[in-house]
């Protein structure tokens, strides 16, 4: 995992010495919004109107942040309107690359680039920062709209509704305050918490992060013991933002990131909830367990220096989820 500095690539891992061993995630730098009429969104500039075929999505099947955007692309009927390029799961000295020698890796379908950093440099030749997925690219203006997954899924949730005819709303006005409240803790303690545990380089930093992970999972398990979904009987953005981390937990984070107090399958309500969302129409199509396992164990040399790929547990994601009874009650 390297970064660009004034347009030049540097193979540099995260600096945890300056933070007492704690992992600090960098802020996304491209924060424009696609809107229905092209007006500015909550941040950035305007001029990005929702149009079929105009936008291209760069993702990794391994990355949970990118997985969010693929989930919303499925849910909102955008597969015929926004095309996709998938990077190779191995992220080594050159960062994300466009090799095609792994099932599901497509190469760069827009520019035939070798490296994802080339896409960033097309948008900003003097770019300084991490080269991350997802990236939403505007073919018309030849630039990056956004590389912030939380904002891309909000765009997908509503901006293209007049094009797709899909009026599902996973961020409904009456539930927004509750969704935002849930998202805040889930992001800090679960989505990013597993990384703070796995990338910690001191015992103190690890202990702080990993206990927060399981305190939050206990809290989520309690919520899901009483309601079918995180906000009640309606699935929302909060559920879909949590799911990618849960999908990767037992296969990767439990072992590789040392989040090993419990597995997800040890939480009966959370496990049932996860199976239901995995079995949701279209979702399994964007879940690639082989990319998860390969990427984390092969790419993180500081954690797994011999790059040994574990056999992993056999988990039946298609087993009955049993969540219907909870809603009926």
CATH topology of the largest domain: Glutaredoxin
* Helical coverage, percent range: 25-40%
Number of domains: 2
**Element-level helix/strand string:** EEEHEEEHEEEHHHHHHHHH
Give the strand content.
Answer: 5-15%
Silhouette: globular
Q: Sheet bearing the most strands, described? A: 4 strands, mixed
How are strands sequenced across the largest beta sheet? Answer: 4-3-8-9
CATH class wording of the largest domain: Alpha Beta
CATH architecture of the largest domain: 3-Layer(aba) Sandwich
Structural class: alpha+beta
Give unreliable regions as ranges: none
Number of strands: 9
CATH superfamily of the largest domain: Glutaredoxin
Determine the mean pLDDT. Answer: 95
Radius of gyration: 19 Å
Number of continuous helical runs:
11
Ends apart, CA distance between termini? 48 Å
Q: Concise description?
A:
This protein is an alpha+beta fold.
Summarize the structure in words:
With 329 residues, the chain is α+β, with helices and mostly antiparallel strands. It has 2 domains: 162 residues, 3-Layer(aba) Sandwich (Glutaredoxin), CATH 3.40.30; 128 residues, Glutathione S-transferase Yfyf (Class Pi), Chain A, domain 2 (Up-down Bundle), CATH 1.20.1050.10. Helices cover 39% and strands 9% of the residues. The chain contains 11 helices and 9 strands. The strands form 3 sheets. It has a 4-stranded mixed sheet, with helices on both faces. The protein has a 3-stranded antiparallel sheet with strand order 2-1-7, with no helix packed on it. A hairpin with a 4-residue loop joins β8 and β9. The protein is globular, with a radius of gyration of 19 Å.
């Amino acid at each position: 995992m390297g970064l660009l500095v004034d347009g030049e690539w540097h193979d540099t891992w995260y600096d945890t010495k300056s933070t007492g061993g704690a992992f600090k995630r960098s802020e996304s730098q491209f924060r424009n919004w696609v809107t229905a009429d092209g007006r500015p969104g909550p941040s950035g500039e305007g001029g990005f109107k929702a149009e079929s075929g105009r936008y291209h999505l760069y993702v990794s099947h391994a990355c949970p942040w990118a997985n969010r955007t693929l989930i919303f692309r499925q849910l909102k009927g955008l597969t015929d309107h926004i095309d996709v390029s998938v990077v190779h799961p191995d992220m080594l000295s050159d960062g994300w690359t466009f090799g095609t020698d792994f099932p599901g890796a497509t190469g760069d379908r827009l520019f035939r680039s070798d490296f994802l950093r080339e896409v960033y440099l097309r948008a900003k030749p003097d770019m300084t920062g991490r080269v991350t997925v997802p990236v939403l690219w505007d073919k018309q203006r030849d630039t990056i709209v956004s590389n912030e997954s939380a904002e891309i899924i909000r765009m997908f949730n509503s901006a293209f509704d007049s094009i797709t005819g899909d009026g599902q709303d996973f961020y409904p006005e009456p539930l927004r305050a509750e969704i935002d409240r849930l998202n805040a803790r889930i992001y800090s303690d679960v989505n990013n918490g597993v990384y703070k545990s796995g990338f910690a380089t001191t015992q103190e930093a690890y202990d702080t992060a990993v206990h927060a992970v399981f305190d939050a999972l206990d809290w989520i398990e309690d919520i899901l013991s009483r309601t079918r979904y995180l906000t009640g009987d309606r699935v929302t953005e909060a559920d879909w933002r949590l799911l990618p981390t849960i999908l990767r937990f037992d296969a990767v984070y439990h072992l590789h990131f040392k989040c090993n107090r419990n597995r997800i399958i040890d939480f009966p309500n959370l496990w049932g909830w996860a199976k239901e969302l995995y079995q949701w129409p279209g979702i399994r199509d964007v879940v690639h367990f082989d990319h998860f396992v390969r990427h984390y164990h092969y790419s993180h040399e500081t954690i797994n220096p011999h790059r040994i790929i574990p056999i992993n547990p056999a988990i039946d994601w298609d087993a009955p989820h049993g969540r219907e009874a909870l809603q009926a009650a």
